[in-house]
Amino acid sequence: MSRKVIQAYLDEIEQLLVNCSNTYIEEYSAVILTTERANLRIRIRFALRYLLAVSEAFVIVDNQITYIDYRYHFQDEQNNLIFRYDSTPHFPNLPSFPHHKHLFDNVIACEKPYIADVLQEVMEFLE
Question: What InterPro entries does the record tag this protein with (predicted)?
């Protein structure tokens, strides 16, 4: 059953990517390490300029995805950070620790976003 949960999630992500307009997928790597664990890495170019780099490591617990680690990094063509969500435990004073969002000049508390919401945020930025 765990492998089916992983495959359903990866299929959902692929469908999200297919529905993104004006994009180029530079890298898509989904590695199923065990029946309960997988890693996902994606590099998406928007308008051939902006880059969204996605990295997720997750396990299946009670038929639910539990994220071990994640990073959603969005930057412009000069490699300037626009935003990055991640779970690196380096801001222990934030109420959402270890989850947080880097902005170009600040770090704020936030919960882990769903990848579809990150893609929507990118699309809204580009409008």
Answer: TumE (IPR054795), TumE-like (IPR045397)
Rounded-to-integer distance, Cα 7 and Cα 82, Å: 31
Q: How many domains does the chain have?
A: 1
- Establish whether the linkage from the previous residue to 98 is cis, with ω within 30° of 0: yes
Reported as type and span, the H/E element at residue 12 is: helix 2-18
- Provide mean pLDDT across the span 70-77: 97
Identify whether the C-beta of residue 75 lies closer than 8 Å to the C-beta of residue 82: yes
Q: What is the pLDDT of residue 1?
A: 66
DSSP state of 1: -
**pLDDT in the model for residue 108:** 97
DSSP 34: S
Chain centroid offset of residue 106 CA: 19
Instruction: State how far the Cα of 51 lies from the Cα of 90, in Å rounded to an integer.
Output: 24
Give SS3 for 58.
strand
Tally the C-alpha atoms within 13 A of residue 48's C-alpha that lie toward its C-beta.
0
Full domain range(s) for residue 41 = 2-126
